[in-house]
Amino acid sequence: MQLSTWIYVSTSRMESAAADAELDRIVTISRMRNASLSVTGALLFTGQQFAQCIEGPEPAICELRTSIMADARHHDVYTLTEGAIHCRHFVAWSLAYAGPATFVSRQVESSLRDAKTGSANAGSYIRLLLQQFAESS
Amino acid sequence: MEDSTTAAFIGSSYVYIVDDEESVREAISFLLTSAGYQARCFSSAAEFMAARALLRPGAVLLDLRMPETDGLGVIAQSPEEVRSLYPMIMMTGEGDLATAVDAMKMGAEDFLEKPFDAEALIKSLNQALSKVDAFVKREENRRQLRITIDRLTPRERDVLGLLVNGMSNKHAALELGISFRTVEMHRARMFQRLGVKTLADAVKLAMQAGVDLWLPA
């Protein structure tokens, strides 16, 4: 089975007062759904932006991507990396980070800027950021 | 005090700068003081740790690299309840991604790479300070609710405990070996003392207070 990945950054549309509860719902559903589709990866939420990497069987990634693109809780979905990969970078799917740290939003914003100006490394950088947070310390 | 710089602070405006370099401490302290914060400097982790218990809740700007105890050492020695009152922002000149993420996983609130501009610093500080305010408010609310619950009689508390654990009046009566009517009476008085009208509100109040409502033996 061909392994595929998708890495994107998007802008939240969630009201800040409801964001915590909404994020809990997203995480609970994603964890179950991704496990059942053998999809691994990680999600990050800065309060304003989402960054996510998903990886798994090509049809599953395709299906998830369609569903994520249609989700009304975010917009401006910008793809940093997409396509075939040789091996997985994550052992499971998890919420890597959710919080207001300006360090994290700076990394997400600068990667997005890099990607929009044609850098091919922005996706790998976001994946690395997600991996660092997802790894158990 | 009606001017806009002080009016911006609803709660804490305290910032504690912990850095072994005097020039850095002075520069940050000057910047923050002119922006309306109450800044206080410490030249070592030990000096800060010794004073901490006496400090008003506020944000801590911690240098990552310091002789003896470094910034990570301070975080490691600060349990979560301390970090809630004194959220810690790491500053470093030579940080890589892994160091930053590790510091945050240990409990750092944020990470600033030197040299940082005033805007980045203030944005990070305001995030941390609003977290302090929210925590202080929540704790104060909890303390008030605990006082209210402490005013209940032991029997009313038993009834609250059983109802919170999902028991009906009838089951509570059986459990406590008292009559259904007596349970109803305790329940009505308990609601009155807590200032609630419904069981849902009583349960919510008990949860917010974080009281451990034991089940009577």
Strand order of the largest sheet of chain A: 4-1-3-2-5
Q: Kindly state the number of beta strands of chain A.
A: 5
> What separation lies between the terminal Cα atoms of chain B?
56 Å
**Total beta-strand segments of chain B:** 5
Percent in helix of chain B: 55-70%
Largest sheet of chain B: 5 strands, parallel
- Could you name the CATH class of chain A? Alpha Beta
Strand content of chain A: 25-35%
Q: What would you note in describing this structure?
A:
The complex is a heterodimer of chains A (137) and B (217). Chain A has 137 residues and is an alpha+beta fold. Chain A has one domain: Alpha-Beta Plaits (2-Layer Sandwich), CATH 3.30.70. In chain A, 42% of the residues lie in helices and 31% in strands. Chain A has helices spanning 19-36, 58-69, 102-116, 122-134; strands at 3-12, 40-45, 49-57, 74-84, 93-98. Chain A has a 5-stranded mixed sheet with strand order 4-1-3-2-5, sandwiched between helices. In chain A, a hairpin with a 3-residue loop joins strand 2 and strand 3 (49-57). By secondary structure, chain B is an alpha/beta fold. Chain B has a 5-stranded parallel sheet, sandwiched between helices. In chain B, helix 7 (118-150) packs across helix 11 (199-209), helix 8 (154-164) crosses helix 10 and helix 9 crosses helix 10 (180-194). The chains are: A alpha+beta (137), B alpha/beta (217). Chain A binds chain B through residues 97, 100-104, 106-107, 128-129, 132-133, 137, and chain B through 97-98, 100-102, 104-106, 109-112, 120, 123-124, 127, 131.
